[in-house]
Write a structure and sequence with these properties.
The radius of gyration is 16 Å and the shape is elongated. The protein has a four-stranded mixed β-sheet. The chain is built from three helices and eight strands, in the order E-H-E-H-E-E-E-H-E-E-E. It folds into two domains: about 60 residues, 2,3-Dihydroxybiphenyl 1,2-Dioxygenase, domain 1 (Roll), CATH 3.10.180; about 50 residues, Signal recognition particle alu RNA binding heterodimer, srp9/1.
Length: about 140
């Protein structure tokens, strides 16, 4: 069994997955719009704009997959209780990823050393997703 994180958006999934691929060095392995999926259960319910939203997308980070999509049936809201944590080997890697995601973000915990990490930052990005980016305590 594998646990696969799934992130939902309210119309900006395409932009988010491209930003995450760049920030985390990932590969977009699947990107299907509602229009391309042509799901008969959804098509009559969608506006013309929503038909170009993302029905299903997958981002591969090393050997880990994240599933992403836009949800047209519920209003998107930011979730502060759940978040994804990315572990890097060096503080420079943490800084580089954060630099690409910090515009428009809300900092929860600023970038700093902690008792469990030599460099950690926690924030909600401009897409409404909460991230923790950090190193192990001892950099390799």
């Amino acid at each position: 069994m594998k646990m696969v994180p799934t992130l939902n958006f309210g119309g900006n999934c395409r932009e988010a997955i491209q930003q995450y691929a760049k920030a985390f060095g990932g590969t977009i392995t699947c990107l299907v719009s509602y229009r391309e999926a042509n799901d008969p259960a959804w098509m009559p319910l969608l506006t013309e704009e929503q038909k170009d939203w993302i029905y299903h997308a997958e981002l591969l980070l090393d050997d880990q997959r994240i599933i992403m999509s836009d949800h047209a049936d519920i209003a998107f809201t930011t979730c502060y209780s759940n978040f994804l944590t990315l572990m890097y080997d060096t503080k420079e890697q943490v800084q580089q990823a954060y630099e690409l995601l910090k515009d428009g973000s809300q900092t929860i915990y600023p970038m700093e050393a902690t008792p469990y990490s030599s460099c950690r930052v926690v924030f909600v990005d401009r897409f409404g997703i909460r991230w923790g980016i950090m190193t192990e305590q001892t950099e390799r």
